[in-house]
Specification:
Keywords: Oxidoreductase. Its EC number is 1.1.98.6. By secondary structure, the protein is an alpha+beta fold. The protein has one helix and two strands, in the order E-E-H.
Length: 53
């Protein structure tokens, strides 16, 4: 199997990615949050919960 070359983009070819998150039962873009809420969003930690044995 032949390996594909890595794709590299120049800065002028890049576009901003809009991040959405679930808040109080519905989805909203993080960019619409106020400064404090954006800070809280960036402090979140993700985890995997293991099944109880």
């Amino acid at each position: 199997m032949q390996q594909q070359p890595a794709i590299e983009l120049k800065d002028e070819e890049r576009t901003r990615c809009e991040v959405w998150t679930r808040v109080m039962g519905y989805h909203r873009p993080v960019a619409s949050f106020n400064t404090g809420k954006q800070g809280e969003f960036h402090e979140r930690r993700h985890f995997d919960q293991q099944r109880a044995g």
